[in-house]
Task: structure prediction
Amino acid sequence: MRTVVYTIAYVALLLLRLPRFDVAHVFAASYFSFVIAPTPAVLIAKLYGKRVLLNYHSGEAEDHLRRWPRSTRLIFRLSDRVVAPSRYLVGVFARFGIDAEAVSNTAPLERFAFRERRPLRPTLLSNRSLESHYNVADTLRAFALVERRVPDARLIVAGDGNERARLHALAAELGLKRVEFIGAAPPDRMPELYGRADIFVNSSLVDNMPLSLIEAFACGLAVVSSDAGGIPHVVTDGETGLLFPCGDYESLAANVIRLLEDQSLAAGLINSARAACRQYTWTATRGRWLKIYTDMLGGER
Result:
């Protein structure tokens, strides 16, 4: 019932407000959310003769486009420009005959204070939703291996989702002694959570351009992540972080141990990652967005 009421109100607002604008910048994710949010926005914008910029940001794009061709084909064809936050998604769209361009996500890096981590402590942070495709289960399995080698290691798990009960049960099954589930953390709490940890870990199976990695860079955490989707476009293995193959939790654990045993390596990765943050600021991307809007308006300003 809530979805029905929300959708009716949403469509009414689109009908009322879209006539006042020249360009509709429509954000899109995958599957059913694509149907209930971007689809009516694109259709109503074109009804009014407006230009449409479809900004698609989901790492599940390939599966979505393959499994839901009827609900996606028309919307992409009606969109005047398609923008994605990574070159990875641009490549996915190209395989389906869709022209797209990459403009990276931005993060409010001024909110995140950098802290030197020398020596690197065995305090790990996971900040992903507790859903199956983010595979936090492998983070727990990896931490079990880390805990055997480093008894004082700690893992903070931030996030909530459908996998919560299963992950709590898995932590008990693995006998984890120093794991803390804190639930969903609001954005204003994240700087404090990053400040508590020294290593950011991510074991997702499907991903695009997670802002949590960029935030970890800005705060000075060493990053160990799977190579899912567009992550290699954000984390350069051996330069700004350490990557491991999706589903290989033993490699995740080995990379964490490697950082703890090689403090020089950890410091180098952290410093390089901090420098890489500059490309994810509004200052770095503003000109690109303005050019896209100007082009869509035929050179008008």
User: Anything to note?
Assistant: The longest helix spans residues 2-17. The chain is about 45% helix and 15% strand. The mean pLDDT is 94.
